[in-house]
Amino acid sequence: MVGHDRPERTVTRVWMIGCGNMGGAMLRQWIASGVLAPGNVDVVNRADRLLPTGVRQARDVPSGPLPDLVILAMKPQQLDDVAGRFAERLRGVPALISILAGVEEQALAERFQARAIVRAMPNLPVGIGKGVVALDSSSADPALRGAITTLMAALGLVEWVDAAHFDAVTALAGCGPAFLYRFIDALAAAGVAQGLPEDQANRLALATVEGSALLAAAADVPPGTLADRVASPGGSTRKGLDVLDQGEALVALLRETVAASARRNAEMAAAARR
Questions:
Q1: Other C-beta atoms within 10 Å of 209: how many?
Q2: Nearest 10 degrees: Cα torsion 18, 138, 40, 52
Q3: Per-residue pLDDT reduced to its tens digit, 209-234
Q4: In sequence order, which residues have a C-beta less than 8 Å from that of residue 100 and are 6 or more positions away?
């Protein structure tokens, strides 16, 4: 007897509610990569934005059949307003994805009657296909998880995580680009302090971080090992690392930085609970 596999689920028709910096970055990359066709996407915005050609935008969700997927990409503070306006119209949608920081699956389920709800936390490099997308769901079946993984893979690294770890992942990967941008600025400022012109220091710092990150991503050893390989005993790199490593100063600073973001995520989650 020949078995019949269940057909794979696909995501073709998408409605996006809100399309700011993050939602727009995701949408542009999906369309640029061919994962979504512009004519299959409808965006609900409070005001028109510059979107890829062919994407429809309006102030209300379309009439007619529900799409394969609805994405909530507005500000978390707008959750109740959006639910009040659209929850009934979206009742029974096959899947609802939320990128709202700090809003848990249960809080979404209390407002929207979707067949499955998925939390997603992308970071800004998704706009060039080099981002991170963390996912969590207690209601998505394996077929839906596969379809959403395929959709998100066009944006970069996709990781399904436990709900208990979602705030930590959000703080690390979701907020992480901002922390790295601060580091790049600080590295350039350190070069200026040594006498370099500001524009030149900025170029050098940015290129150094870009190349180092690409090398670390391709290496078969941890970044810490790469750092030790660069640092010859008694050399200038080692002297600089001694400052960062003294009392685990850099580790302690970033631990508190990420912890502060994680605490704020937890506070927002508490505020969204009914």
A1: 16
A2: 40
A3: 999 999 999 999 999 999 999 998 89
A4: 72, 74, 75, 76, 79, 272
**Integer Rg of the chain from CA:** 22
What is the C-alpha separation between 56 and 29, in angstroms, rounded? 16
d(CA 108, CA 140): 14
Q: What is the pLDDT of residue 94?
A: 96
Q: What is the pLDDT of residues 153-162, one digit of tens each?
A: 999 999 999 9
| The residue type at 98 | S
% helix, strand, coil for the chain, step of 5:
55, 15, 35
Q: Contact at 8 Å (CB) between 62 and 15?
A: yes
Report the greatest alpha carbon distance in the chain.
77
Give the side-chain half-sphere CA count within 13 A for 72.
32
Q: Outline where 198-235 has alpha helix (H).
A: 198-218, 223-230
